[in-house]
Every structure is written in structure tokens, then in C-alpha cells.
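pasting for ref. prot 1 ->
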Amino acid sequence: MQATASAHLHRDHHLFSSSFLLRSPKPRRPPATAVRMSLREDGPSVAVVGVTGAVGQEFLSVLSDRDFPYRSIKMLASRRSAGKKLSFEDREYVVEELRPESFDGVDIALFSAGGSISKDMAPAAVERGAIVVDNSSAFRMVPEVPLVIPEVNPEAMAHIRLKGRSGKGALIANPNCSTIICLMAATPLHRHAKVVRMVVSTYQAASGAGAAAMEELELQTREVLDGKQPTCKIFRQQYAFNLFSHNAPVQANGYNEEEMKLVKETRKIWNDTDVKVTATCIRVPVMRAHAESVNLQFEKPLDEDTARQILKEAAGVVVIDDRASNHFPTPLEVSNKDDVAVGRIRQDFSQDGNLGLDIFVCGDQIRKGAALNAIQIAELLLQ
């Protein structure tokens, strides 16, 4: 039995290996007859901070997939990674050590290097005239810093554009991955009937903790199947074939930081300090893409058929809601996909008068939950 399971794991290794995250991305190429337009003299100069990490690599993949125009691009990382070579869009780049002067002449800086580095380096980039799109939690709750999901609240950054800025820098925050995935589905319904209370339970993949966590999950899976003691360096307990409360620090109120991000960020993005939000965030042994169960209570009635139609028409959302075949969103189906998938759309019969709905949401944490959302923000800057 164990040998069979191990053989299956070896056979399917390519399906969930995280090692690709540490190599240069292999973006989808256009047909040979197509002309790649990304490298353009009239495009902005771009810097990718934390380029060797999981999200940094995904930044490059999304930039290429969406033909984001740039006249130059800098690959920035820690001193440890400096000197490494990366291939991107048929050109070879040398990773440079991140320094304040790295941002001289940079128009857009995409940050995904952790909160402490963002707190130190993002202001330096802004001082040098760069518009920073930061993927960390460092600035999300700073009142004057826009916290943006382009499909949800683009108006929050309407005052920030590359054109006509006269070299002035700015800072825009990318929301937490679980918040983005949740609000992509909840916001279209909120616009129609106004959410007054939201209860969220998340099932979060290893990708949310970075490439090292993904590697550890793979390693642990092999070790457990081989009857060995699992290696627990990233998390304090066994991750393979297990689940546990999200590893973010627990606060005095009993909620961990991940759960409170959902509460605080939702209120800021929706510009509604009165909306009631509660969350329970769980790590599950899934390699990539988060899932969330969301219960919504509305101010006005909203039936499930109307909700389903609203979601079908929502930008960046795909509905997978086949009750007959019990087919609903799964993390595997949305991995490496841009859209957030929604299903299990049903009336909450514990609430009278069609004032409640349950939905189930899945989204790629690295893609829409991080890199894609940041690139979409950068695209708004070009308008």
C-alpha cells in the first residue's frame, strides 16, 4: 500500500512540485508570427523587488502574459541572490542587490519581499519618484495609502497616474490574498443588496507562505509516505495530511493576524466601517490556491438565482455551480488561472426573507491573490 502510494506520488510529482518557482518563469509564448510588444521605448521603467521569490517570479510571468509595456526592467533581490541570472522574454538579466539607489529612474516598482523590507525600501523608492505597488502588509492600513482591487475599488487610486506626475512618487498597497479572493466574489453581491455581515472560513494553501513552505509540504508528503519523521522548519507541526489554524500570530482578542486582515481590509476597501466581518483561517495541505466558505447577510433581499446571474456577469469571476454532478470550485481547477471561481451558491435558510447567501470561492493565491492584482494596479497607472 505504502509503495503504491509512493509510486503515485512520484508519478504525479510534476503536478504539484514547487521547484519551478525558483527558476526563471516560462511564460506562455505568442505564436511565432505575433510581435511581442512588451519592450517599448514609450513604456515605463519597471523594477521587480523580491524577484527570486514565488510572487516575484509570478510578477514576471504575469507581466509577460499580459504584454505589459516597459522600456526597461530591473531584477532586484537580497544580497544573497545578487548576481544570479534570469531569463525573461528572451533576454538574460542579472539580479541586482536591492539598495535605495536601485530606484533611480524607475517609474513603477513592484514589491514582494516581505513587510520589513517594504517598510525600509518602499519609502526610498517613492522619494526617488517611483510609484510603488507593495504586496506586503506594511502599508495596507495606513489611511492615506490606497488599498486596491482593480475590479472592486479602482476609484481609490484615481488620483495616482504616471502621466503628468512630474516625477512624484506614490505608494499603493495590494490587499491580502484571502481578502482579494473573498471580495472578488462578495463585492458584486454587496453592490446589489449591501452586505451587513460576512462570515468567512478560509482553507489556505502552502503557496500563501511562499516557495519554502511549498517545498516543505512536498518533502513532508514524501517523508510521511516513507514512514519517516516529517521535517518541520517552516511550520511547527506536520502539514502533510493535516490541517491547522493559520500560522499568523494570535492576538489578544483570540483572532490571528490573517483573520483580522480580512476584517480590517474589507472595511477599508468597501469604505464601510460598519460592516460586520468575522473570519477563521486554516492552513490545509494544498500546494497552490486558496478556498473560502463565505456566508453573507444582506440589508436587502437577494435570491440565489439573481446572485448567480450577478456573479456570472462579474469581471474576473467564473461560476462553477453544477449541483447535478456535484461539481463546484476546487483549488486545483483555479491553479495558474486568473479568474476567481464561485460555486455552492445557495440561500442561507437560517435567515428569513432571502437576506442570506452561502457561497464557496477558490482563487490562485499567487496569481490573483498577489501578482496579477499588482500588475492590474500597474495597468491602471498607465491610463
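and prot 2 ->
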Amino acid sequence: MNLKIKSLYALCISFMFTAQSGFSQSAKTKASLPEIKVSKNQHYFVTENEKPFFWLGDTGWLAFGKLDRAGIEKYFKDRKEKGFNVVQVMVLHNINAVNVYGDAALINEDVSKPLITAGNDFKDAKQYDYWDHVDYTLDVAQKNGVYLAMVPVWGTNVSKGNKVSKEQAAEYAKFLANRYKNRTNVIWLNGGDTHGNEFQDIWNAIGNTLKTNNPNQLVTFHPFGRTDSSENFHNEKWLDFNMFQSGHRRYDQDSIKTNFKEDNYKFVLRDFELKPTKPTLDGEPSYEGIPHGLHDTLQPKWTANDVRRYGYWSVLSGGAGYTYGHNAVMQMFRKGDKPAYGNKELWTSAISAPGAKQMVYIKKLMEEVPFLEGVPDVSLVVNQGEKYDYIPAIRGEKYALLYTYNGRIIEVKLGKIAGDKFEATWYNPRNGKKTKIGTFDNKGTQNFQPEGKKEDGNDWVLILKSTK
């Protein structure tokens, strides 16, 4: 779209008509994905027909701005094939956002004035705008069975320079709620890598507006590193579930003594006990391929081993799902782009990174058991350790799952699940293969030793299932 041939007056008139009439291109799209809602026990997610829904997310933060239509097709087809069912994305990275086709998102960088044109014909630049491309992406995601967890406006636009007022935010949220009211594959991530104790009037205005207008679309808050939405918004009615960002630093890189450092499972264990009960999950752990601590590119990079560890630590502590990330994919790095965080890999190759391929095994494992009844129970582990020796444990009525990141022996306190006997199996998080161990009496304690030497990345899940 060539903005020079359009008068600002015409653009404003177009916007006013759209906002006031409630017209929405997405309203014409037939929904094909079931709505996602909170489970009856309030700890997990289910579809509208009560089918368990395990959140396996990817961070495609800049997809709206940096991918063309072919790129959108390629990315979502790949994520479907790898088992992802949620993609986290920014609607507005910046208030001067322009997509790959040169379409600006806003008039005069004002979030209360989305730049909208009549029609959505891609072949006619005058009839295809930023928001039409968002609609197209939602359609492609829907076709691939993917839900978009969308950040309305990234947190730095609010926290730095006061570029967004409460009034503008509320008007913008009303526009979003109206445009996407008939979309069943939309989830809202309020905030965006920002401190929840700052500018709460703006975040509450966005959250309340989205939830009031579209009560069936889930809303949460994506917070700053090492913080959790529950710390500032747990009791807000607009917040349906909690999300925390466990962050990208090592234990020794943290200067804050009061947070949980790399121990992302501690966020889950804390949130699991809060009232009112709400699901929780790690929405941004350390990304595969990103330097430890983010900014020093000479530091080692986080690997597939690390993203697996964060995944199993949190999910086997009661997390309702898990979001994976890769340095190149989260910024949709293309040839000619200025790299962030030392990245040198194109997103088109990074989508096949080892960790991305292995995430599906977390989802498959949880879908094998009735995970909606899962309750974290660290008392299952007799020889509990700290840091990388930590062993999370979760159980249902007839199953228990325990995880070692480094091949430690696991001493299990038995009698915690139903039945006189149980079958034990090793599950390999790197390839999803199972190795039967044997059948045991369900009493006393029992040691289980994984194969291989004790070293980081030699990770295993111990599956215990009642034989009756």
C-alpha cells in the first residue's frame, strides 16, 4: 500500500466507519478450531467439548511484521508438523510497526487509530493493509490447528517514553476485541516482557476491555524475566491463567536474591497453590541458541538440553503447558536483518533445531496420561537434590511421572498411586522411546537408575502406572 496516494482524511474516515460499525473481516471467517477454556479443576486447559488441551507453544514474536504470506504458510505448516498448537506473537512490536509489505499498523503512531483500508484484496495494495495480513495469519494458523497468543502492544511502548496512554490503550483494546470477536483461535497476552507493578492502569484497561467484550477468549499477562503474572494480577477478573517468564540467565548471573533463578518449577509450585485457582505455565524460558544472560554474545548458548529441562521441570510440577523458543525464530531472522543477541542463523533453518523437534515428546507424554488430574508431589522423591539435580514429580490416581535432567538415580517413595503393583518404564525425552523396566510392589521405596553416566542432558522420565 502506497501511503502517499492516500489522504489522511480518507484514512481517518475509513477507520471511524470500521470502528463505529463493528465491521470485521474476521467475522466472516468460519471457525474451525474449538474454543479453549480452563478445566473444571482450574489447573489446566480443555477445549469447549471438555477434551484435554496441552499448551505446546512457540515464540514467533515478529511473525506479523517480518513474514510475507509464503513465510507464514511455511512457518505454521512446520509448527503443525512438529506438534506445536500455540504460537505467541506481537501484534505491535513498536507503535511505528510496518509489515513486510510496507503497510503501517497505525495512523500517526497512535494505538487508538489503526490504519484500516476498505477491502482485503492482496492483489490490490490499496485494499490490503497491516490488519488484513494479521487476519491472513490467523486463517493460516487456524488451518494448521494453531492458536495465536497475541500481545496487543509490546511492553516497552508503554514503559519507555509513555507512548501509550490509558485512554488510547482502552480504545485500541476495544478495536482488537471487536475485530477478533469471532475468532476461536485467539488468546491474549497482555503486557509483553514488562514489569507488572508498573503502569498497571494501562494493563488493567487493556485486560478488562478484552475480557469484557470477548469473555470466551482467554487472557493472561506476559511479564518481565524472572517474574510472574500472579505477582501483580492474580486477582484481576480479566486474568484467566498465569504466565511467567523464567528468563535467559544462569544461576550465577542473577543479582536478585529473592527470585527463583533457573528453578522455573518454583513458579509453578507456588502458583498451583494460589486462590483463586488458575492454570500457570512458563511462557518464556531460555531460548535455544541464545547466549546465557542474553547480552554477552561471548557467553555459551542455551541448547536443546536446556529447553527440555525447563519443559519437564515445569510441566511435571503442574504446569498447564510449556512455550519453547529459539533465538533465530523468535526474531524471524532473515538475510540482511540486523541480528539481535548474537544470532547468525536464518529462521528457515532454525525451525528445525534439535530442541524444536524434541518438544513434541513432552506433549505426547502428557497426552498419554489423564494429565487433567495431575497434582505435583515432591514427596515421591526420597533423594531430592538442588539445581540440576532437582527431580520434579507429578501424579494422578494411577500414574506418576518423575524426571531427572542428568541421569541421577531416582529413589521413589511408593504407595502414592492406586493399586498393589505398578509397571515402571523409562521415557527418553530426546527421541520419545520407551524402555520397560519391570513390575513392582507398590510399597516401601525403590531405586531406579537410568542408563548412561551422570551428566547434564542425559535426561529421563520415569513413568509409573498401576497395573490394575
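The chain has two domains: 3-371, 377-466.
DSSP finds 14 helices and 22 strands in the chain.
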